[in-house]
Design goal:
The longest helix has 15 residues, at about 25-40. The chain is α+β, with helices and mostly antiparallel strands. It has one domain. Strands 2-1-3-4 form a four-stranded antiparallel β-sheet, covered by helices on one side. It has one helix and four strands, in the order ββαββ.
């Protein structure tokens, strides 16, 4: 199992300030939700979840692109 498949990045002001990697999607999605809850209210925050085994495909982003 690839321990670095699912990658979370928290950026503030366009600069990455925190990273996390998990081998399974369920855990990564729980962490994504926790990061949004804990850190999402800070101005300029962006949180992304990507699948590194699929070329860095974006799975989730906060805030949503549609907002």
């Amino acid at each position: 199992m690839d321990n670095s498949r699912f990658h979370l990045t928290l950026s503030t002001g366009g600069r990455p300030v925190m990273h996390g990697w998990w081998p399974d999607l369920a855990t990564a999605e729980r962490k994504f939700a926790a990061w949004v809850s804990e850190r999402g209210s800070r101005a300029g925050t962006r949180i992304t979840l990507t699948d590194e085994a699929d070329g860095g495909r974006l799975l989730k982003a906060w805030p949503d692109e549609d907002r």
